[in-house]
């Protein structure tokens, strides 16, 4: 038995941003390329929050020429720079050096919708950057403060008068943390472009200093335009001429656009407060159940039945391309990477919103509805035929295995381990008859 002592002096306490540097994967999902780019998404999400709440309409993201530094600027209100009444430190410094700090935790109405309720985004980026410079335009003056590996190396400086307002964050990821610090310009551009469809009123500009190109990623067509782009990328024609689209602006804002195609793949893109939820979540579950119920109700109402054929939810969604965007006052994400929504009420909310609207649309557009149902029936028949073919192959394979054994090997009559033995013999005569 070990004789090592265990006392209070053995207890370690990580203060400030030390937990982030000690266990970065807990906050950004990993220290690979995906985790590296998550730093950009965190700062961009903060800028988008200003837009969502009516305080900004433009964001610029710059990938610098060495490929290992990014600047994100917005024309929002600018992070406050006045002293916090309790902590006696500038608000900017508190936000960038303290986990779970920011206006999103307050009781006021500073942020109605936000993608960053964990309150760790900008501070995590600061902790994992070898250098970060925050420049604030606010109340007619320009302010700036520099940080290294999460710690301030300068005081908050008042540089002088300026026009406009907003926040600019420049950061260089720490090579001591990440496997690579080289950003992928294509990855950043595609991420920003998908966001521009969700936020059709937001002007997003991407400056790629490596390629010496500037891209205006604004898409006024919004989610319906995004849907057509995804369908085109799938390279399979749509089943119907027009998509189903729905927008709700009262209460929690929701928007959906969907269309069936001849593809055998299912493509669903879901977003919460503008953030891509690649792992789905409760809102996506509500979308799927709402679609399935609407289709089943339509088929039952119009007595669409195929003898010996059961339609599954997967049959209904085969070939479906859908985009769902919801805005939630207090989103609960699974982990800081925000890839999955956990708000339990959103399943029923989205289901109850989608189902009656889609059902009404199907009944009002009988030609399109019959085309969709025909596509679903074909998917079910193909699934059944594939299963029968697979079963036949398994039966044939089992028979072939018994018939095609080498001449000196004898097959077992039983597949039970309890009833079978293996004999190893040397020479033909030792094998017996």
Keywords:
433 residues, Ribosomal Protein S5, domain 2, 9-stranded mixed β-sheet, 5-stranded mixed β-sheet
What's the short story on this structure?
The protein has 433 residues and is α+β, with helices and mostly antiparallel strands. The chain is 35% helix and 19% strand. Helix 3 runs antiparallel to helix 5 and helix 10 (345-364) crosses helix 11.
Describe the 3D structure:
This protein has 2 domains: 18-216, Heat Shock Protein 90 (2-Layer Sandwich), CATH 3.30.565.10; 222-384, 2-Layer Sandwich (Ribosomal Protein S5, domain 2), CATH 3.30.230. The termini are far apart. The strands form 2 sheets. Strands 1, 2, 3, 4, 5, 6, 7, 8 and 9 form a 9-stranded mixed beta sheet that branches. The protein is α+β, with helices and mostly antiparallel strands and 433 residues long. It contains 11 helices and 14 strands. The chain has helices at residues 18-22, 25-28, 33-52, 91-97, 121-127, 185-198, 222-234, 282-301, 313-317, 345-364, 366-403; strands spanning 58-63, 70-74, 129-138, 141-148, 151-152, 157-161, 166-173, 203-208, 213-216, 244-248, 254-260, 267-272, 275-276, 320-326.
